[in-house]
Amino acid sequence: MGIIHTSRIKSPWIMHFDNSSCNGCDIEVLACLTPLYDIERFGIVNMGNPKHADVLVVTGAVNRRTARVLKNLYDQIPDPKMVVAVGTCACSGGVFHNCYNILGGVDKVIPVDVYVPGCAARPEAIIDGVVLALQKLAKLQGVAI
Amino acid sequence: MQLDWMMAVAILLPLISGILVYIIRQYHIRGLIVVLTAIALIINSILFVKQGLPIEYTPEGYNWGLVITVLDYVILLFYIYAGLSLRNWLVLIFALTQIIPLAYWEFGMGAHAEVEPAFFIDHLAVVMTLIISIIGSLICVYAIRYMYDHEHHLHLENSRQSRFLFWLVMFLGAMNGLVFANNIYWLYFFWEVTTLCCFELIAHDLTTEAINNAARALWMNSLGGTAFVLAIIYLYMNHGGAEALSMQNIISGGLGQAVALLPIALLCFTGFTKAAQMPFQSWLLGAMVAPTPVSALLHSSTMVKAGVYLVVRLAPAFAGSYLSIMVALAGAFTFFGASALAISQTNAKRVLAYSTIANLGLIIACAGINTPLSIAAAILLIIFHAISKGLLFMCAGTIDHIIWSRDIEDMEGLAEKAPVVTFITAVGILSMFMPPFGMLLGKWMALEAVYIVPLAAILFVLASAVTIVFWAKWLGRLLQVLPRLGKKWEKLSLSYSVPLWVLVIGIFVVGIGVAPIYQKFVHFAVTNVIAAEEVFAQGWNIVIPGSAAASAAQAVGAYPVWPLFLVLAAALFVPFICLALKPGELRPVYMCGEQVGGTDADEWITAGEQKAKLQLGGYYFQSVLGEAALNPWVNTIAIALLVILFGVSLGRWS
Amino acid sequence: MNQWLLAIIAVVVAPFIGGILAGIDRKISARLQGRWGPPIVQPFYDFFKLLGKSKIAVSRVQLVWLYGYLFFMITSLVLLVLQQDILLLVFMLGFAGICFVLAGFSCKSPYSHFGANRELLQMLSYEPVLLLMALAIYAQNGSFMISEIFKNNTPLIVPLWPIFIALIYVLTIKLRKSPFDISTSHHAHQELVKGIMTEFSGPYYALVLLTEWYEIVLLLGLVSLFWANPLWVGIIIALAAFVLEMFIDNIAARMTAGWMVKVSWAVGLILGVLNLAYLYLKKGVL
Ligand code: SF4
Asked: Are the beta carbons of B507 and B391 closer than 8 angstroms?
């Protein structure tokens, strides 16, 4: 299944989900799509639909309302799938971690493969995070990237 | 001798069993009589195929001409009575416009309407009688149980099923007489009998709406009948008396002189009214109030098919004239208008009705195009349409008795309740517009033939694009939810399931075997109408050669029947073989992650933390394509087309 | 036998051409937007990745329709390669489209329903133009057979240029490019999530991609028929048309479905009818 394994690395489609971020990280995720960073070079496409996604990019801390949604979306992504938590909020809850409605980082609800810290995470870091996720996938499959 | 019996079975047996059914008011015996009649009719119609056609037949013994004349006046007097008792002046007026000229002609002028032969049975007539006897009989069988359930649902005190079956069964006899008749005066009589049966059946439920709609059907068809009477009188007076009343003489120039276009136009007009062509579509739509077997019968094998039969039969009489072009245009316009109107309908039966009107328009347009190819298309369309529409109406009726609704939007979860009926309905819908089934073949032939009438060509193109929209919409709604694996099939009464399954099988058999069936049989029906030698079928495929002697290599068009069925079969079966789905692989649909529940979640949580149920609906474009918006336009144009049609037929221009 | 070999070769080769064309599409779009863009073979990576994903679906009947979409598209392509009846080809193409619509309808998803309804409107927009094209070709050649087109030495584009323009117009609808990416869209564009495609995932989405590649080849094949002698001119015209579509895609904004139906009926009908009328006058049928 060599070609399929290679293709998985070459064509990660991402889905971006915003829990309760301050929108700082969201802007940075979108910045990755711009001509300056152009993540489509790596075959990365922002899909906006879990059914087509391979990598779930989550920003913001999980609150009581979004926990269920996040879980649902994660379940709807077909395997194999990776999760990248972008921003300090998504990693641990960040500045919001003591709020009345906040559960904490994304890993409270779904398993996370790569943590990208930063407030906000820089586009380079985000791209790096997705590439790290792909490397992890490659290692799991036993193929070279 | 054998022929006497066959004719008696075809025309008189339905009448006799109708009377028996009327007298015997016992559910099982009544059902048995209907089933036996159905079997007799079916066998009888197949026997006709085996005869050396054409058959010329004139009944001996009694003075049948007198019997028919007397009955004719009885029917017309009944119309007058109906007009008076319903206080419907249109019914009264058009009954009078029939009876007065007819009486003047027969008694005032002392006309003799004896024609040798009285019946002329060629391949076209046999094609029609096969449709009537097989599909019509199946519908009668279906009606046995349907009417029982129908009355059960309405909680009627006095059963009126006997009366219903009487008219239903008799209808078949009248239709057989109609297609066999060569004497157009007799044809007129059978024509009136079908109008009468139709009136009685629509009015069956005796609600105000039913009676009003029945009256509308009656006056519109009486208007057609009036045109028929005028045509008979015109032919009799101007073309040499009784000889001119022979259908064969009219169409094959047996009168020694060309027949004037006016009576032909009048007869076509009669056909238009019966085939519910625009602007007369409202009676067929109104007929929807009747119990579903009536609709099934009216739409598939009887009534409207009589209208198109007459026009197709008359095709050679107006070949090459402007009348022919106008007939093509009027038909094509109805094809387009009715298809567009069908998009806006939510009621399944009304969608079916508009689609019938549209397809009849297509058939009439084919008759108007008047080439061997188009006549072949017309006859094939008559056959395929009868099978598919009969099936679809019976399905609509069965669905009606399962969910007690005819609304397409209500059929969403039908597959859960009734997987079998859903499957059959889906096959029926597919057969109406998808390759490789017959209707599409007919449409394809029609489009290949339409070139010579440019305006009709454009209408055809638009209409066939519009047609797919409403079918796809309905089919999508029907198959939206499928039952889980391992779900039990619903049990249907035999009286429902036998007709349904027979027609499903019929769709496939006729669809796959269309080329040989065409070559061995339908081909002759085409040559009955239009005397030209052309080969269309080669082996299992339909090929349209450029000239009579051309081979497949020089064909103008080709339609591979078998390969297309193989493609369909592949599409159906490959999913089960590779990439098949296991139950665990089903996931809920995407609702922004807000869905609640498992695989078939149809609820979601709103911003206010409330559960809301998902509701989906189709597009209906009421404001653009609704009846209120479109009817004034289409009716005006249709009336204008009819006026031009009569205009061009006043002189014999060509 | 030769014919069948040709058909098999076409069925095998077409996805490669279609995939490369889709890759070129993405590359050119990226360049027009000032980006570097993915490699040309990116669509194949996508395809194989999707094939390797776990199979999940929302409904069983969906699969039947998706296979119907694929198979009837292949049928139309085979009809084109075997130079069969063009009217039948248009019908098959239409039926493939219906299968796709029904696949969209066959689940209780609001997004795919929206997409399917809009796809129906797209079909309503392009179907008459394709049928008019078939009729016009008949009017010119006296035959619906594509083989006759190749026997004709005058390129079809000369008498049929209005229909050709209409065809280029509906090509935008058929390829779902802006301003007509109404039922669904490509690349990273989103329209009501992903419109009719929303519920196709994994290998089933790969099927849809495969069918779209066939579709591109088929449509460009139809375009190239307008200069069938010699065929390479036709192919160049078809490729030029394809590049033109990409430019249109990148400079146009998405329009509404109602506007699409109105304008394409107006454009298609006016051009088609004028063209037919001209052909009729020339042949003296009118
Ligand atoms: S990490 Fe910083 S920028 Fe990102 S969502 Fe949290 S607060 Fe906003």
From this structure: yes
Residue C195 Cα distances to C39, C61, C245, angstroms = 26, 19, 21
Per-residue confidence (pLDDT) for residue B548, from 0 to 100: 46
Say if B601 is an interface residue toward chain A (CB within 8 Å): no
ipTM for the assembly? 0.88
Model confidence, pTM: 0.89
Q: Does the pLDDT of residue B654 top 50, yes or no?
A: no
- What average pLDDT does this structure show over C118-146? 84
A10 touches chain C (CB under 8 A): yes
> Which protein residue has the closest C-alpha to ligand 1 atom 7?
A22
**What digits encode the pLDDT tens for the residues B630-639?**
788 888 888 8
Distance from the B587 Cα atom to the nearest Cα atom in chain A, whole angstroms: 7
Nearest to B331 by CA among B223, B456, B453, B440: B456
Pairing of strands A55-59, A82-86: parallel
Q: B454-478 and C110-141 are packed helices; what angle lies between their axes, rounded to 10 degrees? A: 160
What is the full DSSP assignment across A6-32?
HHHHH--EEEEEESS--SHHHHHHHHT
Residues of A in contact with C200 (CB under 8 A): 51
Dist. CA C183–CA C192, nearest whole Å: 9
Domain range list for chain C: 3-285
* Dihedral of the alpha carbons of C263, C264, C266, C267, in degrees to the nearest 10: 110
Chains in contact with B, counting 3 or more C-beta pairs less than 8 Å apart as contact: A, C
Ordered by start, the domain boundaries in chain B are 2-480+488-570+618-647, 581-613
B459-478: pLDDT as tens digits: 888 888 888 888 888 888 88
H and E: helices and strands count for chain B:
28, 8
Which member of A68, A70, A76 has the closest CB to residue B590? Answer: A76
User: Can you tell me the distance from the alpha carbon of A43 to that of A22, in angstroms, rounded to the nearest whole number?
Assistant: 28
Q: At what angle do helices C202-224 and C42-52 cross, to 10 degrees?
A: 140
What is the atom index within ligand 1 of the atom nearest the CA of A95?
7
**A104 CA to middle of ligand 1, Å?**
13
B595: part of which helix (H) or strand (E)?
strand B595-596
pLDDT, tens digit (0-9, with 9 covering 90-100), for B473-505: 888 888 776 655 556 667 777 778 888 888 888
**Hey, are the CB atoms on C106 and B479 less than 8 Å from each other?**
yes
- Residues of chain B numbered 54-73 and touching chain C (CB < 8 Å): none
The residue in chain C having the minimum alpha-carbon distance to the alpha carbon of residue B613 is C108
Supply the mean pLDDT for chain A: 84
- Residue B509: Cβ within 10 Å count: 12
Tokens of B309: 């039969």
CA B253 / ligand 1 centre spacing (Å):
92
CA distance linking residue B185 with residue B225, whole number of Å? 11
**What's the angle, vertex CA A58, arms to CA A57 and CA A60, rounded to 5?**
150
What lies within 8 Å, CB to CB, of B17 at 6+ separation is B33, B34, B36, B37, B169
Give the SS3 label for residue C39: coil
Partner residue opposite B546 with nearest CB, options C72, C102, C143:
C143
Query: Which residues fall within 8 angstroms of residue A125, CB to CB, at 6 or more apart?
Result: A116, A117, A118
Cross-chain residue pair A40–C188, CB shorter than 8 Å? yes
Helices C110-141 and C257-283, packing angle to 10 deg: 10
Distance A23 CA to ligand 1 centre (A): 7
In CATH terms, A2-141 corresponds, of 3.40.50.12280, 3.30.420.10, 3.30.565.10, 3.40.50.720, to 3.40.50.12280
Contacts for B143 with CB less than 8 Å, ≥ 6 apart: B34, B164, B165, B168, B291, B293
Average pLDDT, chain B: 81
If you measure CA to CA, which chain C residue comes closest to B598?
C58
